[in-house]
Amino acid sequence: MKQPVYAGVDVGGTYVKIGLVTREGEIIRKTQIPSQIHQPAENMLTRAAQTIQQLLREEKSCKLKGAGIGTAGAVNVDEGILYEAPNMPDWKDEPFGRILSELLKVPVVLDNDANVAAWGEYAYGAGRGSRYMLMVTLGTGVGGGLVLDGKPYRGAEDAGGEFGHVKIDFDGWTCGCGSQGCVEAYVGTRGILKRVHTGLVHAPDSLLAKMEPEKIMPVDVSRAADQGDVLAIEVLRQTGEYLGYALSNIVNLLNIQRVVVGGGVAKAGEWILKPAYEAMRTYSMRVPGRIVDLVPAELGNSAGLVGAAWLSAFRAGDL
Amino acid sequence: MKQPVYAGVDVGGTYVKIGLVTREGEIIRKTQIPSQIHQPAENMLTRAAQTIQQLLREEKSCKLKGAGIGTAGAVNVDEGILYEAPNMPDWKDEPFGRILSELLKVPVVLDNDANVAAWGEYAYGAGRGSRYMLMVTLGTGVGGGLVLDGKPYRGAEDAGGEFGHVKIDFDGWTCGCGSQGCVEAYVGTRGILKRVHTGLVHAPDSLLAKMEPEKIMPVDVSRAADQGDVLAIEVLRQTGEYLGYALSNIVNLLNIQRVVVGGGVAKAGEWILKPAYEAMRTYSMRVPGRIVDLVPAELGNSAGLVGAAWLSAFRAGDL
Question: How far apart are the first and last CA of chain A?
């Protein structure tokens, strides 16, 4: 009997990651193709389908049961539609799910990229063993994905999980979304660099002072911290504290068991995660606060791909 | 055939409200007994059971199918235990559910008072027709209860829904819970009165300036607003704005459809609710923000009683 596999398709602004994944979360094979976001979406999906079929020819013992797509942007999960995505402006109201399903002749599910990364970590990564989990993705923006009572949570119109726009200061910094005091404004790349630039005024000896200010990136701050740089350590500590304060909101409201932190900025590791954990515990109420843990993500940039595949298996009732 | 009814029992620090409720949410009969919180909990439950049996004797056409208890404090829903409640300090780890079930010979479920009020409004009040709802109770403290995807939400250890301790300012006012910047510190009674006292310094002509400062209560502020008092109106407007800002957190995270606001302070009505609605919409993201509504609670202080009865019917699968 052939092994059932699920295709995971993770659509980003530059590349589409594609893989064959087992029900146990093992990636049998993976590759990537260019997104070509200025071509019609149907072209990308046709190339994705051809790629999946090629992978299946290379793995003759596997049988495709379904596929899951994760994509940046606003989606309609039930109808499999990408409404719009800021980083792929030519694509609007694209029926990704239907098109790929017709090409592959299997059921296809669609969800946004932050969500599929959360489902991946939940099912096969740092979220295993929990039933109530928040995944936070730290990068230029701050993403989120929620699992509640063992099920993906999306809200009334698939627009839930926006942890980046949970607010922590009504008089606070303006966020890219136009609102005030969103956690993204404090712990996204811009917030981190704002604190670096402000701090440099009083820290001419910082390792970061040797760089051209506009070229400093979060990874440089994290490297400087590893070398003991006081300013870098303080900037990341504050970043963690803002993150932890925002997380305590989720803890008090949803009584979750685990927070999983991934994304590029999370590579700063303990410099951010330790103060984040401490602040989350400090600001949470006693009962929900005592059970919640905070751990780094485990699946790196495969999380979306395996999460999309997991969603396909989950929806089919194969788990 | 006799009409099936469910007993609702709402345990407060002073009174226990008791009623017989149909599956449709109609209160057939209700009454209340003193809580006598310094007597053993078993005494209260025995008197509650006798009261329910008396009500049943008066309504011979009804047959008791189950009972639900709402109580202040921290509870274990599955085991029917009240762990502790600040306003009933003599009762600890009381197996309310088991005791009442043995006395009444029907299944009994237990939940906390903010939750049962939310279930009541959801099933029979201002939440009808929604599937994703937050109930906010404004009073001395600020309570919350969440319905997600048509089901009561409690979190991993029944400690979720604490909307009052969602945070809005990391440098903010200290809350009764010891944490910083909780919405309760701004929109609970203390927060409202703090703004009144600060404002009176610059508003000697306010109607509120005629009262002894320490005797002013939120209801006085609300009455002064009704008479056009500028300070009172501004204090309530700010209260609404803080509330709306905090609500936008929930909207962005959970993509809920409806917010129901109840509790004593909510009697200030539009003076608080209108600015709350506007701030909630202003600070929410576009997609989740456009569907969410904010409405006053409908069931008054019967919400807990009918909600407890509803929970009993819901758990029994009778709905």
Answer: 18
What separation, in Å, do the N-terminal and C-terminal C-alpha atoms of chain B show?
A: 18
> What amino acid occupies position A290?
R
Q: Is the pTM of this model over 0.90?
A: yes
Q: Which amino acid is at A313?
A: A
Which of A166, A241, A245 is facing B253, going by the closest CB pair?
A: A166
Mutual angle of helices A96-104 and A41-58, in 10-degree steps: 40
Lookup: tokens for A121: 């970590």
Helix boundaries (H) for chain B: 41-58, 96-104, 113-124, 183-187, 189-200, 218-226, 230-254, 270-283, 286-291, 303-315
Q: Out of B158, B168, B283, whose CB is closest to A179?
A: B283
* Per-residue pLDDT reduced to its tens digit, B118-148: 999 999 999 999 999 999 999 888 999 999 9
Question: Contact A153/B153, CB-based, under 8 Å?
Answer: no
| CA B234 to each of CA B200, B223, B295: distance values in angstroms, whole numbers, following the listed order | 12, 13, 21
Q: Is A76 on the interface with B (CB under 8 A)?
A: no
Q: Over the stretch A209-251, which tens digit does the pLDDT of each residue have? A: 999 999 999 999 999 999 999 999 999 999 999 999 999 999 9
Instruction: Give chain A's radius of gyration (CA, Å).
Output: 20
In this structure, the dihedral spanned by the alpha carbons of residues B187, B74, B24 and B126, taken in order and rounded to 10 degrees, is: 10
What secondary structure letter does DSSP report for A14?
S
Q: Which residues of A touch B153 (CB under 8 A)?
A: 148, 254
